[in-house]
Amino acid sequence: MSAMIEIDGRTIGPGAKSFIIAEVAQAHDGSLGLAHSFIDAVAVHGADAVKFQTHIADAESTPAEPFRIPFSYEDNTRYEYWKRMEFTPEQWAGLADHCRQKQIVFLSSVFSVEAIALLDRIGVPALKFGSGEVHNSTMLDAGIATGKPLLLSSGMSTYEELDDTVSFLRSKGAAFALFQATSKYPTPLTEVGLNNLDYLRTRYGVPTGLSDHSASIWPTITAIGRGADLVEFHVTFDRTMFGPDSIASLTFAELAEIVSARDAIATMDSNPVDKSTMARDLGRMRQFFRKSVALKEPQRAGTRLEAWMLTGKKPASGIPFDDVDKLVGRVLLRDVEATRLLTWDDVGQ
Fold first, then answer.
1. pLDDT tens across 216-239, in order?
2. pLDDT, position 122
3. Residue 342: what pLDDT?
4. Peptide bond into 14 cis (omega under 30)
5. Which of 73, 77, 132, 300 has the least C-beta neighbours within 10 A?
């Protein structure tokens, strides 16, 4: 069984509802007001947490960093883009406070030791490490030192590399969870890799989830149905919005569908049904759907019953049709019409 972790007082692991993280990332495009609007929308549509990305350009990048997608109309370099995405510590604290007011968990991905220190100061309850950072021992050490759970994506990792990271984290006594992820935006359904959920859980014995970039609700809903402890996906007000991740994001209406599916799955999983007890409880319903023994045609008293004379008709208030073989060879004691069910009083030996 997988170990459990806690994020802001919420238990993550087997037996708990899947923890839903809606990722804003850079969809705010540097607008603090839009970032706050995302918090409102995520809260209204039922996610457990909203996640940003805390970039500090001077700590993580240089002007030589290339764009993954050349999308920007105002930034000549990726470094300039990260500068434009930065919020001040006070602004980050305001975003975290807004989440608390809305009773959702504030999370953010880290890309530098400085970002870890900033988020630790404002009270982030867990730290997310993207695929490019999960083998950075300096950053992992800084994250471990905060005492907070670490959430790690595995989108660019081999199992051998994950083995090393997990061994490192365990040697330090860290609490952590792992995400199956595929670092393609959007991710084709053929490459989501749901098979890795069970493998990660079995191999490492920690809470396991899916970080999805498919722009489809189905990988996340299927992952929840398979017992994912956490799920994460990008959100957008509309997939035509500006930004590199919009095309790989879900809308807020789709977020609401996932929340509804998660809650329905949790209700079903937490209410096991005993087949025999349920069948007995459905006694009246069984009468509507099951059949009793009747005659195909009217028969006279003294007729010895043969199989061809007998059939099943509703309701199930007479001789159960399961007992039809017990009637073959018996003699009718009275005339019986085909318009009623046979009774045991109708037959002799």
1. 999 999 999 999 999 999 999 999
2. 97
3. 96
4. no
5. 73
Which residues are registered as beta bridge partners of 5? 12
Q: Name, in order, each residue with C-beta under 8 angstroms of 46's C-beta and a sequence gap of 6 or more.
A: 20, 255, 256, 259, 260
Q: Residue 322: which residues within 8 A CB-CB, separation 6 or more? A: none
CB-based contact 130:143 (threshold 8 Å):
no
- For the residues 231-252, what does the mean pLDDT come to? 93
Two domains, one topology: 5-269 and 276-346: no
Q: What are phi and psi of 25, to 5 degrees?
A: 55, -120
Position 121 scores a pLDDT of 98
Measured at the CA of 95, the angle between CA 54 and CA 180, to 5 degrees, comes to 50
Reported as half-sphere exposure (CB side, CA atoms, 13 A), residue 60 has a value of 25
Position 172, amino acid = K
Q: Residue ranges per domain, the chain?
A: 5-269, 276-346
Query: Average pLDDT in the 5-21 region?
Result: 96
CB 188 within 8 A of CB 158: no
Q: Side chain identity at 130, as an amino acid letter?
A: G
CATH 3.90.1210.10 for domain 276-346, yes or no, is yes
pLDDT tens profile 59-84: 988 887 777 777 776 877 888 888 98
> Above pLDDT 70, what percent of the chain?
99
- Closest of 20, 54, 28 to residue 236, by C-alpha: 28
What CA–CA distances, in Å, run from 43 to 48, 50, 77, 104, 293? Answer: 8, 8, 34, 6, 59
User: What six digits make up the tokens of 286?
Assistant: 């069984």
Instruction: Calculate mean pLDDT across residues 169-195.
Output: 96
How far is the C-alpha of 187 from the C-alpha of 245, rounded, in Å? Answer: 11
Closest CA to 65 of 80, 46, 45: 80
